[in-house]
């Protein structure tokens, strides 16, 4: 059937026999053929009836949906059939494969899904990787899985790598067996001369203006249709609008990009009608994967849109970079497919020499969360898989940490049930988690799909980033038509809504009607599912937030989210030294605790609160560096409470117990121990603290705090330790007070055990002949004599001597100061 159409004039026909021989003998081969050689459409057809294929399928992988559809259609045309008969295709959005289909053209990710389901690829004779020079992550990953499966299962499925510009040695070694590389087949192709001209864009010129000027000049100076290479659909649309005003009436403008409707794509690929010329504005899809009829002029803007890790969002996003020299050569070659042509390069000849020969492989430039999840599901360690460029170890480790944080990998590194669910969604694992977790959540599920689409696409709010509101809920409401906003680009909003509906369809989420309040409630909650590491809490000032990891993020203090207590910072710009929030959402404490679940740590400990001067139970809930809330509660009875109360007693050396009475008692015992020896106990602070558990802790059972300590009678507890007999002796030998002849008893101060003392008004001692003593008369008290105004007069340890000695002089002074008082000549009488 594959040879049921006559030979073509495509250059690759010349090497088909070499390719047949290579695959028949080794089942592995590399084909290098320039653009236009016919490898994409001709090779699968010419190999379909090979004996080793034996009626089985050929699967060919294309990096883009547009190329997959176009390749399948062209092969079907060559066979005179419809797509879905012998030749079919499948992309993320379409499937045109019938029961008789033997050549299946797939986009790269489809193969990975098939391999995860059926590593044997039952019924597949050959897998063709087309345009492998682009080094897409899905190509590298799919090839690694395929080679691993073929080696493990001993399968005879053949593998062919094809490219226009290729590291043939590297791929030959990768596809080889042991030290023997796979055979490499070269097709020289037939390339007509292309005149390279340089038309550098002036500094400050808008891209669409420079493109329009170059296209108009090329149409004026050269013949044929024009193919313009631009980085993306936005630039294509702006250039089309600009050209509409500058081109003559016989020139048609067409757009060519994978995001456009199929009819518009097909129209762009057809040749010009008689008497008319055309300008095709294309992404790099036309660089090597597609043939655009009638092109003799190429205008190359010199830019490419490639995936790169965006640290602001933690996602892989498309960024615009300078294209490589290899890319420039392929683009220029499109002008010389059928006749001599012209290629206009919109940069200088000097810059041309400084461009990279090839752009680096995607696998070293992008977020590897999806790669890590795929490898975990595959089950072979990454260092055991065969990659042309292995995934960077650090980036892969960080990706695994992220997947574990999202609960997509278990402790052993295997996918969880949630991880497998996320693997089936065409989203970054962060966004896939957000959708999968809330897929049965009604309004939340639908809002999750819209938020995922918003984060995957360009912001629908146009303007300077610093002037736009940060709240994603505003954008969700604008996209859903629930509220308007001056910055909202309605066209962008419609595209996002279409993407959200596609996500919902794939995830099984109902697109329910939601109201503004539901969006406000759901937005922060679903966003936290994707970014649990980017929770932030407001500091004391509006617009300043501390993040879970300890960093800080800021935004305009007048923004509506600036006074929220908690936010999720999905899009953070850290390029200016200070992290600025671009897009995020607010949420309340209950939502944080509900979504993060086990990530919330609870610190429950007892401590002495200085402000309350009491023992309290401090319960703190945290997420990383963020304190969610803190409550001070009464302590509960128990061993922990007793331990904390004992710690407080130790720290204050009993003063927390109101220890004046106890200290007086302890000094009396210390006095007796000083004079009578070890028959009296050591009641020093260190000694009492040493056996605190024996004599005090039993009395703290059931205690809660300061009130219970206040109820403790420490002197009574100490006397109980001393015993009844010793207590009586204590009162006799070291009485707490001494009673003078007149007035009230006075306390005896035992602070100095060698010289206990009393302070008493001299008048209260009138009639006292013997000096006051303790310890059975063995230790005299040091007497501090006071005036009627309680001012010090004299200190004596010999009261009779004082009366007979210096009292006469003291008497004269007291009589002069206090004439109304009686001052006898002999106070001892």
How would you describe this structure to a colleague?
There is one protein chain. With 829 residues, this protein is α/β, with parallel strands linked by helices. It folds into six domains: 11-186, P-loop containing nucleotide triphosphate hydrolases (Rossmann fold, 3-Layer(aba) Sandwich); 194-359, Rossmann fold, CATH 3.40.50; 364-416, no CATH class; 425-599, no CATH class; 640-725, no CATH class; 737-817, no CATH class. The chain is 37% helix and 20% strand. The protein has 29 helices and 31 strands. An eight-stranded mixed beta sheet has the order 4-3-5-2-6-7-1-8, sandwiched between helices. It has a six-stranded parallel beta sheet with strand order 9-16-13-10-12-11, sandwiched between helices. A hairpin with a 4-residue loop joins strand 22 (601-609) and strand 23. Helix 7 crosses helix 8 (233-244), helix 16 packs across helix 19 (516-530) and helix 17 (472-479) packs across helix 19 (516-530). The model has no long low-confidence stretch (mean pLDDT 90).
Any descriptors?
single chain; 829 residues; alpha/beta; Rossmann fold; 6 domains; 8-stranded mixed β-sheet; 6-stranded parallel β-sheet; 29 helices
Biggest sheet strand line-up: 4-3-5-2-6-7-1-8
**What is the total tally of β strands?**
31
CATH topology of the largest domain: Rossmann fold
Compute the number of helices.
Answer: 29
Q: CATH-wise, what's the superfamily of the largest domain?
A: P-loop containing nucleotide triphosphate hydrolases
Please tell me what the overall shape is: elongated
Give the helix/strand class. Answer: alpha/beta
CATH class term of the largest domain: Alpha Beta
Q: Would you tell me the overall average pLDDT?
A: 90
Strand content: 15-25%
Low-confidence stretches at least 5 residues in length (pLDDT < 50)? Answer: none
Mind summarizing the main beta sheet?
8 strands, mixed
Radius of gyration: 45 Å
Name of the CATH architecture of the largest domain: 3-Layer(aba) Sandwich
Give the % helix: 25-40%
Instruction: Compute the number of structural domains.
Output: 6
What is the first-to-last residue Cα distance? Answer: 148 Å
């Amino acid at each position: 059937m594959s040879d049921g159409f006559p030979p073509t004039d495509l250059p690759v026909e010349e090497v088909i026999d070499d390719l047949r021989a290579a695959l028949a003998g080794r089942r592995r081969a590399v084909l290098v053929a320039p653009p236009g050689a016919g490898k994409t459409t001709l090779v699968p057809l010419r190999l379909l009836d090979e004996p080793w294929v034996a009626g089985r399928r050929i699967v060919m992988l294309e990096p883009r949906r547009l190329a997959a559809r176009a390749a399948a259609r062209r092969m079907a045309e060559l066979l005179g059939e419809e797509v879905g008969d012998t030749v079919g295709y499948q992309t993320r959005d379409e499937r045109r494969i019938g029961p008789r289909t033997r050549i299946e053209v797939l986009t790269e990710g489809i193969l990975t899904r098939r391999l995860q389901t059926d590593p044997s690829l039952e019924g597949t004779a050959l897998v063709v990787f087309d345009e492998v020079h682009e080094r897409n992550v899905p190509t590298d990953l799919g090839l690694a899985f395929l080679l691993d499966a073929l080696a493990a299962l001993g399968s005879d499925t053949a593998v062919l790598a094809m490219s226009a510009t290729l590291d043939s040695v590297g791929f030959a070694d990768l596809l080889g067996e042991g030290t023997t590389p796979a055979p490499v087949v070269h097709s020289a192709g037939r390339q007509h001369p292309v005149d390279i001209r340089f038309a550098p864009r002036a500094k400050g010129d808008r891209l669409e203006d420079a493109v329009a000027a170059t296209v108009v000049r090329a149409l004026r100076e050269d013949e044929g249709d024009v193919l313009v290479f631009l980085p993306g659909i936005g630039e294509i649309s702006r250039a089309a609008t600009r050209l509409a005003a500058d081109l003559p009436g016989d020139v048609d403008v067409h757009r060519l990009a994978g995001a456009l409707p199929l009819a518009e794509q097909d129209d762009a690929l057809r040749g010009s009608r008689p008497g008319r010329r055309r300008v095709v504005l294309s992404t790099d899809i036309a660089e090597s994967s597609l043939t655009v009829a009638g092109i003799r002029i190429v205008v190359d803007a010199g830019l490419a849109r490639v995936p790169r890790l965006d640290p602001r969002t933690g996602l892989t996003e498309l960024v615009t970079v300078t294209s490589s020299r290899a890319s420039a050569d392929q683009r220029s070659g499109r002008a010389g497919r059928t006749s001599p042509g012209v290629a206009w390069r919109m940069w200088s000849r000097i810059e041309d020499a400084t461009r990279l020969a090839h752009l680096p492989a995607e696998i070293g430039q992008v977020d590897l969360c999806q790669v890590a999840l795929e490898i975990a599901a595959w089950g072979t360690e990454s260092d055991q898989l065969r990659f042309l460029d292995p995934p960077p170890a650090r980036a892969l480790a960080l990706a695994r940490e992220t997947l574990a944080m999202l609960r997509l990998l278990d402790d052993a590194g295997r996918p969880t049930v949630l991880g497998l669910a996320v693997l089936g969604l065409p989203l970054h694992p962060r966004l896939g988690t957000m959708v999968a977790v809330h897929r049965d959540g009604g309004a939340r599920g639908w809002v999750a799909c819209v938020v995922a689409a918003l984060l995957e696409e360009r912001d629908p709010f146009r303007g300077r980033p610093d002037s736009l509101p940060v709240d994603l809920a505003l954008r969700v409401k604008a996209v859903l038509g629930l509220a308007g906003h001056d910055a909202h680009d309605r066209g962008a909003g419609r595209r996002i809504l279409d993407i959200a509906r596609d996500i919902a369809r794939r995830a099984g989420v109902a697109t329910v009607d939601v109201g503004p309040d539901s969006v406000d409630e759901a937005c922060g909650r679903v966003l936290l599912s994707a970014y649990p590491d980017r929770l932030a809490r407001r500091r004391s000032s509006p617009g300043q937030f501390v993040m879970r990891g300890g960093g800080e993020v800021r935004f305009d203090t007048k923004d509506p989210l600036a006074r929220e207590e908690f936010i999720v910072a999905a899009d953070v710009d850290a390029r200016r030294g200070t992290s600025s929030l671009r897009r995020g959402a607010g949420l309340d404490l209950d939502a944080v605790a509900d979504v993060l679940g086990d990530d919330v740590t609870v610190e429950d400990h007892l401590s002495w609160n200085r402000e309350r001067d009491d023992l309290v139970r401090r319960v703190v809930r945290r997420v990383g560096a963020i304190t969610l809330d803190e409550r001070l509660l009464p302590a509960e009875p128990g061993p922990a409470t007793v331990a904390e109360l004992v710690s407080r007693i130790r720290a204050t050396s009993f003063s927390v117990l109101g220890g004046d009475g106890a200290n007086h008692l302890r000094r009396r015992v210390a006095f007796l121990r000083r004079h009578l020896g070890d028959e009296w106990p050591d009641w020093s602070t260190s000694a009492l603290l040493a056996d605190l558990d024996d004599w005090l802790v039993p009395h703290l059972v059931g205690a809660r705090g300061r009130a219970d300590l206040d109820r403790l009678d420490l002197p009574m507890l100490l006397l109980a330790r001393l015993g009844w007999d010793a207590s009586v002796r204590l009162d006799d030998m070291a009485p707490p007070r001494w009673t003078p002849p007149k007035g009230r008893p006075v306390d005896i101060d035992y602070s100095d055990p060698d010289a206990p003392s009393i302070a008493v008004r001299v008048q209260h001692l009138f009639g006292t002949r013997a000096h006051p003593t303790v310890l059975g008369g063995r230790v005299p008290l040091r007497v501090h004599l006071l005036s009627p105004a309680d001012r010090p007069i004299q200190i004596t340890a010999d009261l009779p001597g004082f009366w007979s000695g210096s009292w006469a002089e003291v008497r004269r002074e007291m009589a002069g100061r206090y004439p109304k008082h009686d001052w006898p000549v002999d106070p001892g009488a």
